[in-house]
Known about the structure:
Elements: H1 2-19, H2 26-36, H3 47-57, H4 63-88, H5 93-97, H6 103-114, H7 116-129, H8 141-168, H9 175-194, H10 204-214
Amino acid sequence: ATVVNLALTGMAWRALLADLGSRLPLPVAARVFFVGQIGKYMPGSLWPVVVQAELARDHGVPRRRTAAATLVMILLSAATALVVVIGAFPFVPQVAEGSFAWTLLLVMPLLVVLHPRVLGPLLDRLLGAIGGEPLEHPPSLRGTAIGIAWAIGSWLAAGAQVWLLAGGLGAPLTLRTFALAVGGYALAWAVGLMVVIAPAGAGARELALIAALASVCLLYTSPSPRDGLL
């Protein structure tokens, strides 16, 4: 499940880069994306942008195009993460009634920003602010939609790893638990993204996931101490 999550995330990034005008072969895209992702384990959320831009330049991709694709990927990941959290609410209403309703306030602005008519000019302004030229190929609705589809698939796989681990610790492997695992993981990732001083949001992610799981812990009966861990 973890490997599938990573692979689908890489496919989302590759689709966004192709939408901006550079379609890399799968092996090349994998090297650029996954090696660049090591940068996220340094404090700050923009190191992958820098690393991937340099790696892709060796394959003829302009730095500004790679940087734009990675920035869009960060926005798209945040938006789809919150969409997945909201999608889990009907299955686990206790989470919505808790302290996570703020996700509803953020998801719509993020989706609006991802619309090509907003995103294209925004990227050009950001590039202009650092002395770069506008993008030759602005983002399209179709390309963004493909990236969103890959990203949502990656969140489902990421949640599956939490679901399976939770099952090993005694939680029931039900649809409700799966929804909680998917929504909890996506929420933890979004929280970690906002804590830019921690490498990859380490610490904040785990606390958010614990809070999401703990919010429904009373739903589960615990016939043994081992089963009571979740």
